[in-house]
Request: fold
Amino acid sequence: MSSTTLSIKGMHCEGCAENVERALRNVPGVATVSIDIDHNLAVIEGGGVATNLLNAVRDAGYVAEIIPDEPENSSIV
Reply:
């Protein structure tokens, strides 16, 4: 199952986190959503299309950007 991590701007309280989580859960293909309010992150598991995830957060009144996955081997050769 694929995973997407979003950085969320404007998420300041538990109510904000619930709004973001609800918006993301409504995106087709999303299986689970985990919100980390302390670090302003949302981790989405499933096949949700990135554009749809970003739009859902925007429509809920927040700003999101995708945090790219780190390569498995990030050492410099």
Notes: The radius of gyration is 13 Å. The chain has two helices and four strands. The chain has a mean pLDDT of 91. The chain has one domain: 3-67.
